[in-house]
Amino acid sequence: MIDRSIRHVAIVLMACFVLLFVQLNRVQVFDAEALRENPNNTRTIQRDFGRNRGSIFTSDGEVVARSDEVSGPFERLRVYPHDDLYAHTVGYLSFNIGAEGIERSFNDELVGRTPSLQLTGISDLLANTLPTGNLVLTLDHELQLAARDALGDRRGSIVALDPSTGAVRAMWSWPSFDPNRLSSHDGVAVNASFSELINADGNPLRASTHRDVYFPGSTFKLVTASAALESGAATLSSPVFAVGNGYTPPLTSRPIANFANSACGGDLQEMIRVSCNGGFAQLAAELVGPSALIEEAQSFGFNLVPPFDVPGAVASSFPTDYGAQVRSPSVEIPAGVFENTPLLAQAAIGQNDVAATPLQMALVAAAVANDGQIMQPFVVQEVRNVRGDAVSTPNPRAWLNPLGSSNANDLRAAMINSARNGTGNRALVPGLEIGTKTGTAQLGTETPRSHAWTIAFAGQPGEDPELVIAVLIEADPENPDQTGGQVAAPIVADLIATYFGS
Q: What is the DSSP track for 133-180?
C-alpha cells in the first residue's frame, strides 16, 4: 500500500517536472523573440545598459548614436549628437523606460551578443574588451536634414526610399523629440521628460511615418488605376468617361463631387492627370467592382503589416465588406452593383474607411517605379565589428508584386504626365524625369480641413527611377484650403533636388 502511494507521488512529481520542462522551453525558445520584442519588457535593456555599446552611423558616415564613458555606476552614457533628427528611427536607450527604434530591435548586435560578432571578437577577449557591433544605416544625412527643413513646424511626415532595393534614404516626422532627455542617468529627470512627452500635443514620441494612418485621398487612385489595368476593366486610353462635375453611385442620391466642383472626365491617363474624383468613383463602382479592388489593395500591402526593421510599423487598411450583390429587375440599377457600392466609390478615391501610413504610400509609388514589384523597406544597411569588418549585410528582398511590368510602365507614364501637365507640376526639377500623384484628403469636419499628400518618383531621363518620396502634411485648421499640389509637391521638389544635387 505504501509502495503504491509512493509510486503515485512519483508519477505526479514526474508529470509536474515534465510540465515545468515543457513550459520552460516554450518560454525560452518559442516565446523568446516575442518577449524580447515586447516594448514593455525592459529587463534586457536594464541588463545591457551599462555595457559597452556600438555606434550607429548614417550611410555617409555621420554618427547618430554613440556611448561616452562617464563616471558613475553605469560608466557609459548613450548620446545622440543630432538631438531630434533621427529620434523616430534610431530611437533611444533608457534605464527607466527601456528602448525604442533601432536601439531596441538591434540591441543584441549593438552589445555584441550575436554569434557572428562573438566569433569575430574572440581575439578581443585577450585584450579584456567585449565585442560590440556598429550599425550603418541606409539614411542619407543631407537628405534627412533637407526633409526636416522642408517640413518645418508643420505636422506631417516624409519617407524617401530607393524603389529597387527598399533602402530608406530619409524618414522624418514632426513633431519629434530629443532622445538625450530619455537616456540621461538622472532618473528623476528622465521620468519627468517622459511624462511631458507622452502628454504633449501631437504625440512627439510616436513616429507617424510608419505608426499612424491617415486618409490617403487621391494618392490611392494609383491603386484603383492598377486594379482597373490588372483586371482588364480599363486601359490608359479606354473607356472614356463623360465630363461632369461628379458622380452619383447606384443606391444613393449623394453625389461624389470633383475637387472645387470642377468638371472632368476622359480616359484613365487624363483622369490621373487632373485627379478626377467622379471618373475614378465610376470606374470602381461600375467596372472594377469590390473583389478586384480589394485584391489589388492587398497586393499593394493594405491590410498587412509591412516587414520593416524599425519596430512599431502598423498595417494600412482597406475595407473588405461591400455586402451582397444586388439583384433587381430595375433598369436603374446596373449589373454588378453591391449593397455598399456607394462606399466602394468613396474608397476608390482614398476616402471612407481607407487609411494609410506615409510608408505605405511610398511603397505604392515604389511599385510603379520598380516594374510592379515592392521591395521590403529597411534602414539597417550593415552590421560591422569593432575592426570595421562587415559581419551582416541584409540583402534586398521582394515583398509584393501588385503590377505586371507593362501596367507599371503605363502608370509610370501617367505619373510623368501628371507631373509635367497636371496637379503635380510643383514637384518638377529641371533635368530629371519625375512622376507624381497628388492627394487632398478631406476629413469631413464641419469646418473643412484636408490632409495634403504628394507621392513621387525621380530619376535620370530614360533610366530607372532612383528615388521614391511620400510627403504628408496633416490637416491644418489655419490652412483649411491646403492641397497636395500646393504644399506637398514643393517639398518633393526640394528633396529631389537635394538628393540629385540639382
A: -EEEES--HHHHHHHHHHHTTSSEEEEEE-TTT-BEEEEEEES---TH
218, 226, 275, 450: which one is catalytic? 218
- Rounded to 10 deg, the angle between the 405-421 and 358-369 helix axes is 110
What H or E segment, with its residue span, contains residue 293?
A: helix 289-299
Cell 533601432: give the residue: 102
Residues 339-370: tens digit of each pLDDT: 999 999 999 999 999 999 999 999 999 999 99
> Domain extents for the chain?
217-500
Enter the C-alpha cell of residue 153.
513646424
What φ, ψ does residue 147 adopt, rounded to 5°? Answer: -65, -45
Establish whether 502 is a catalytic residue. Answer: no
Fold entry, domain 217-500: Beta-lactamase (3.40.710)
Q: Is 199 exposed, middle or buried (0-12, 13-18, 19+ CB in 10 A)?
A: exposed
C-alpha cell at 197: 512627452
If one compares 115 and 358, the residue with the highest pLDDT of the two is 358
pTM attached to this predicted model: 0.89
